[in-house]
C-alpha cells in the first residue's frame, strides 16, 4: 500500500544561509541539520503507523502474552482485539487473537505452548524438518506434547523427519490413520464448526480431490455476533499462527475444502 508523504519542512531543500559557498559545514550547522532530519523522521514514522495500522498498539496477542502468533500477522507484533478480527477475518490472515490459557486442560495447554514456541521454527534436533512440507510433522509434534504416544503406525525417527512413518509426516496418511483410530479423534466437517475446539487438528483439501494437502492445529474458535464461527489455526509450510480458515479457503486456495479432527480428551 502507499503511504502519504510526511509533512515537508519549507526549508528542507535548502542549506543554512551560512553554508552557501562554504566548503565545510560548521558543528552548529551539523546539529541544526540533524535536528531537522530527526523531526521529519519521527513525523514519517507516526504517519505510517497511523495510516497503515489504523491504530498503535503494544504487544502481540498469544497465550502467555504478551508474546504469535502465529502472525500474518505475527511478525507485525500488533495485538488485534477479538472484536476487530471478527469483523473481517478474511482480511487479516494472522489475526493474533488472545488465547485464554485458563480455559484449557493441562494437556491442551502443553500442546499449545509447544505450538506457540515452534510455529516459525525451521529445524528440530529431535524431530527434524521437511523442507517445504513440514505441516504434518509439526502437528504430530504438538500431539506428542499433548500426551500422545507413538505406536506401530504413527512414530518419528529422531532427527530425521523424512524417515518418520507416513502417518507422522503425511497429511493424507494421518487422515487414514485417524479413520482407523476413533479412540483418538472424531472426524468433523466444516458444517460442524460449533464442535471444534482449541487443540483440534484442521486439514485442507485444496483441490477437492479427496486427499489432504495441508494440516494445522486449531488455536482459536470465535463465535461472532451474527452467530457465524471463525476457526483460526497454526502450522508449518508456510509458518502460520492464528490464520483464519476462511482466509485459507477463500483467498489462498479459493474453493478448497476444510475438515477437522476433534481430539479426544
Automatic annotation (TrEMBL):
Pfam families named in the record: Amidase_6
InterPro entries: Amidase_6 (IPR024301)
Biased composition (Low complexity): 83-92
Keyword hit for DNA-binding: no
Chain ranges passing through the membrane: 39-61
Organism ancestry: Bacteria, Bacillati, Actinomycetota, Actinomycetes, Micrococcales
Record domain Putative amidase: where: 108-247
Source organism (scientific name): Agromyces allii
Keyword Transmembrane: yes
Protein name per its UniProtKB record: Putative amidase domain-containing protein
Keywords from the named record: Membrane, Transmembrane, Transmembrane helix
Amino acid at each position: 500500500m502507499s503511504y502519504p508523504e510526511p509533512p515537508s519542512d519549507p526549508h528542507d531543500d535548502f542549506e543554512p544561509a551560512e553554508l552557501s559557498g562554504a566548503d565545510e559545514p560548521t558543528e552548529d550547522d551539523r546539529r541544526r541539520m540533524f535536528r531537522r532530519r530527526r523531526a521529519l523522521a519521527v513525523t514519517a514514522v507516526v504517519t505510517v503507523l497511523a495510516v497503515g495500522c489504523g491504530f498503535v498498539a503494544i504487544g502481540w496477542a498469544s497465550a502467555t502474552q504478551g508474546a504469535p502468533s502465529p502472525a500474518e500477522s505475527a511478525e507485525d507484533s500488533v495485538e488485534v482485539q477479538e472484536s476487530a478480527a471478527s469483523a473481517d477475518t478474511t482480511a487479516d490472515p494472522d489475526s493474533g487473537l488472545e488465547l485464554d490459557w485458563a480455559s484449557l486442560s493441562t494437556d491442551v495447554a502443553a500442546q499449545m505452548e509447544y505450538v506457540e514456541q515452534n510455529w516459525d521454527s525451521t529445524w528440530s534436533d529431535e524431530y527434524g524438518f521437511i523442507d517445504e512440507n513440514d505441516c504434518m510433522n509439526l502437528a504430530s509434534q504438538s500431539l506428542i506434547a499433548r500426551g500422545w504416544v507413538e505406536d506401530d503406525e504413527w512414530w518419528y525417527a529422531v532427527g530425521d523427519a523424512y524417515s518418520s512413518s507416513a502417518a507422522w509426516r503425511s497429511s493424507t496418511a494421518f487422515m487414514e490413520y485417524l479413520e482407523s483410530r476413533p479412540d483418538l479423534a472424531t472426524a468433523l466437517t466444516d458444517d460442524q464448526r460449533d464442535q471444534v475446539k482449541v487443540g483440534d487438528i484442521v486439514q485442507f483439501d485444496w483441490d477437492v480431490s479427496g486427499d489432504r494437502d495441508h494440516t494445522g492445529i486449531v488455536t482459536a474458535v470465535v463465535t461472532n455476533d451474527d452467530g457465524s464461527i471463525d476457526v483460526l489455526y497454526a502450522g508449518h509450510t508456510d509458518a502460520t499462527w492464528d490464520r483464519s480458515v476462511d482466509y485459507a479457503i477463500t483467498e489462498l486456495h479459493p474453493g478448497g475444502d476444510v475438515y477437522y479432527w476433534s481430539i479426544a480428551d
